[in-house]
Design brief:
With 145 residues, the protein is an alpha+beta fold. The chain has helices at residues 6-12, 19-27, 76-79, 86-98, 112-122, 134-143, and strands at residues 3-5, 31-33, 36-37, 43-45, 49-54, 57-63, 80-82. Helix 1 (6-12) packs across helix 2 (19-27). The termini are far apart.
Amino acid sequence: MSSARIDKWLWAVRIFKTRSIAAEACKKGRVLLNGSQAKPAHTVKVGDVVSVKKPPITWSFQVKQAIEKRVGAKLVAEMMENVTAPDQLELLEVSKIGGFINRAKGTGRPTKKERRELEDFTDPVFMGDFDFDLDDEEEEDYGKD
């Protein structure tokens, strides 16, 4: 096969878990083919460069074989070559080192440490010493008038 749909190729070489996710990424403009935005039905050929924006970086792959059937993980290296820019890979390493400390809002559950800090912050410490009989004393004061 000399050409393949880009959404099928992205799924076949395991860049996306499902073909529908790959098609959605194309529709949202996260997939570039040779520098221009690609629709899901666009065809890829051997030698094309596919760029995929997956935060925090943009991955780039050169097509070695245009396939539409999913292959095993060991065979993916024969189908594409990772040509991601070194500065993007460096950015990925920096984000891995940073871990979840500066995690963007909505990107996952809090870590155990973050959850404990949140509980400590929201835990009302003063509630243990609070006297709940204040309402009864106020009613007694009103009856004296």
